[in-house]
Amino acid sequence: MIAIVEYGAGNQTSVMRALNHLGIPCIVTADPGVMDQCAGIIFPGVGAAAQAMANLAANGVDAALRRAAARGQPILGICLGCQILLERSEEGPVETLGILPGICRKFPDDLRDEAGDVARIPHMGWNGLNIKKSDPLLAGLPQNAEFYFVHGFYVETKPEMVLATSGHGMEFCAVYGRGNIRATQFHPEKSGRAGLTLLENFNRMCIDQCCQKD
């Protein structure tokens, strides 16, 4: 069973529908006790970092995510979840979960696209991935596989943690990970077959982790 974190930050239903389509057992929950018992956690979200952090702290979900990270439970952060797994966000600014090193930054106001025009912020639409490193989360995905993005901020983390990048007036981190944690700036649940492949891969990571414990 995969827990989908409910903390008042949107798109949990879309993730649930994608997992249901794949036949992957899942539950949308705000209960830390339920999260503790699941094979893995998907941490999605849209909206503002400061409000999200307040919501997480209100019912102890922030502590549950830190416990999961510490004990090796697989976690997949999506969009806002990707951003606030790191230490700090310029959106606020606000201190975030600090599970992995890094910061969430605002796209520059003077950002230009490939044609030299002012780049639209937030960045919305389909972009290809530049896969930098082989990883179980990205298994079976071709170079330049396209995913759906909606974001006005981007993450900076340690170079060795960057698994894939994309571009919108600049190159930015699109997927990062270390140990049991993975995170995507894009929305796999809204990204067609490529997104479903990624979610299947995450489920496989959860199964493999459970088998190792047994």
Describe the structure using short key phrases.
214 residues; alpha/beta; eight-stranded mixed β-sheet; four-stranded mixed β-sheet; globular
Topology overview:
Blueprint: E1 2-5, H1 12-22, E2 26-29, H2 32-37, E3 40-43, H3 49-58, H4 61-71, E4 75-78, H5 80-84, E5 88-89, E6 94-95, E7 103-106, E8 123-128, E9 130-131, E10 146-151, E11 153-156, E12 162-167, E13 171-178, E14 181-184, H6 192-213
Parallel strand pairs: 1-2, 1-3, 3-4, 4-14, 5-7
Antiparallel strand pairs: 5-6, 7-11, 8-10, 9-12, 12-13, 13-14
Indicate the radius of gyration in whole angstroms.
16 Å
Order of helices and strands: EHEHEHHEHEEEEEEEEEEH
Query: What is the overall shape?
Result: globular
Q: List segments where confidence is low: pLDDT < 50 over at least 5 consecutive residues.
A: none
> What average pLDDT do the residues reach?
94
Instruction: Characterize the biggest β-sheet.
Output: 8 strands, mixed
The number of helical runs is 6
Specify the structural class: alpha/beta
| Tally of strands | 14
| Proportion in β-strands | 25-35%
The helix fraction, in percent, is 25-40%
